[in-house]
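Table S2 (text version). Query chain:
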Amino acid sequence: LGLPNRTQPKLGDLIEISRFGYEHWAIYVGNGYVVHLAPPSEVAGAGVSSIMSIVAERAIVKKELLSVVAGGDKYRINNKHDDKYDPLPLNKIVKEAEKMVGREVPYSLTSDNCEHFVNVLRYGVSRSDQVFAGKPQGSILPLGVLGVVGCLLCF
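Corresponding structure-token output:
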């Protein structure tokens, strides 16, 4: 993707982290920390092993250092829907994100993923462009993801 790397985010910024085969999303809550969804077994900055996050049925809301979550992966600030939706007040975004930390929540690649999660926090709107981008292929997208996971597990 060629994402610019290591720009200093502001409170409430959406952070797009380029992972192997998909983008992981988090929301910046200050002092170097982000709140994001992760499968219960995910190790922050796990890179290839974090591919398991896209097939999990549950997720844990975690607060971790952005540098740890991104690991060696590139990231950028991407408040891409600011032109379509008004961001909620920053104090509300941070308060709601912090309140969710430690909770286990349902997770679905198509309806409750990390991008949906951060868009609800910033805009009050559940939306994932990764899902929209995959719509023309429909059921092919999940099968492709499972194929990638299957190949990774073989090694």
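Notes on Table S2: Residues 140-154 form the longest helix (15 residues). The domain at 14-154 is CATH 3.90.1720.10 (endopeptidase fold (from Nostoc punctiforme)).
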